[in-house]
Amino acid sequence: MGHIVVIGAGQAGSSCVVKLRNSGFDGKITLIGSEPQPPYQRPPLSKAYLMGDMALERLYLRPEAFYAEQDIDLQLGATVDAIDVSAQQITVDGVSLTYDELVLTTGSIPHRLPASIGGALDGVHVVRGLADVDAMAPRFVAGGRVLIVGGGYIGLEAASVAAKLGLEVTLVEMAPRILQRVAAPETSDFFRNLHQGHGVNLREGVGLERLTGEGAVSGAVLTDGSELEVDFVIVGVGIAPATALAEAAGIALDNGIAVDAFGRTSAPHVWAAGDCTSFPYAGGRIRLESVPNAIEQAEVVAENLMGANKEYHAKPWFWSDQYDVKLQIAGLNTGYDRVVTRGAAPGPVSFWYYRGKTLLAVDAANDPRGYMIGKRLIESGKSPSPDVIANPETDMKALLSA
After folding, report:
1. d(Cα 345, Cα 329) in Å, to the nearest integer?
2. DSSP SS3 for 58
3. Four-CA torsion 299, 320, 350, 182, nearest 10 degrees
């Protein structure tokens, strides 16, 4: 049945090759990863693994032996230099490899601070891969001083681990509030109170002007003129899709590698899935940075490689763990004009996003029931009245059958 090559051995790449074998593909499969480890989970890196609560082997999506057992050629620590779409070849560490079908699951790359403001100093870290977390983990010592740049979910998760381990934590967010790009003021308020209650020094509306130090970071100058002494810095200012290989090969980009509803790129016999892609959604295009999307889109691509001709219909959901709070998010809040709050901290609380009378999304903090009901309502196209949601007497489960 030919040779399928998958570039990128993360959640999407692993999901694709496993689905291929489970769907009965008995041809040759090559899975190429740039890291030395077999495919692993990323979400626990900045939480359980960094805390020391999860061993390395438990991060692995499957034991390394699994790939050999499934006759999957797993090439680790490998660099793909180029893709030649006309010849249907890739170059891996200088060696040519021919494919019948190619899947790009290259993921994303964290934004880093420019070297001109100290981004290249020792002790400045990003949170993306195992090597990043292994490099910073020894610095998480009680009494240490850490500056976190960026008040999105990655920055806030790092802050929660640092605060739990007894570090002095300062977090700066250039926007007027944390989570401004992704959440309503109500959700921002909830997490601001949570972090301040754990001793985090949250500085909103304040950016980083520059880091200071000789060789290693030792201080920071903020945009309000204040100066900090720091032992290390964690940068959480977003990620970009890893598109360099595709771009060099002439594959169309649009906020990521552009794919159609089936996962096909503009190049024949080339597919893509996961963080690196943008795909059709609700009359436009979207790129989703989430584990569920990586798995589900990659599995649809695998099925289509087997001839299923199946469209991918995303059902967006996300999560974040901070302290003893599990935030679960269903739907996409883009274009909301009203937020309804149900419950109150310290108990279960959820924030329901509406555009007009249409329910768009739910942010549920320690409210798994609210999350599950919200997710099912959104996926079935049901929109209870905001007043009904806000009423603590409402039987939420009954809304599903209404």
Report:
1. 17
2. helix
3. -80
Residue 383 near residue 359, CB atoms below 8 Å: yes
Taking 90 as the threshold, does the pLDDT of residue 401 lie above it?
no
Quick one: pLDDT at residue 1? 66
Which phi and psi (to 5°) does residue 381 adopt?
A: 75, 20
Q: How far apart are CA 194 and CA 177, in angstroms?
A: 14
At 313 the three-state DSSP class reads: coil
* Structural domains for the chain: 3-109+239-305 (3.50.50.60), 112-235 (3.50.50.60), 324-401 (3.30.390.30)
Strands of 277-281's sheet in order across: 257-258, 277-281, 284-286
User: What letter represents residue 160's amino acid?
Assistant: S
pLDDT tens for 47-59 read 899 988 999 999 9
Tell whether the model's pLDDT for residue 204 goes beyond 80.
yes
Q: What is the DSSP letter of 55?
A: -
Q: What are phi and psi of 80, to 5 degrees?
A: -85, 120
Residue range 165-188: mean pLDDT, rounded: 97
pLDDT at 363 over 90: yes
DSSP H stretches of helix in 79-224: 130-136, 153-164, 185-197
pLDDT at 200 over 80: yes
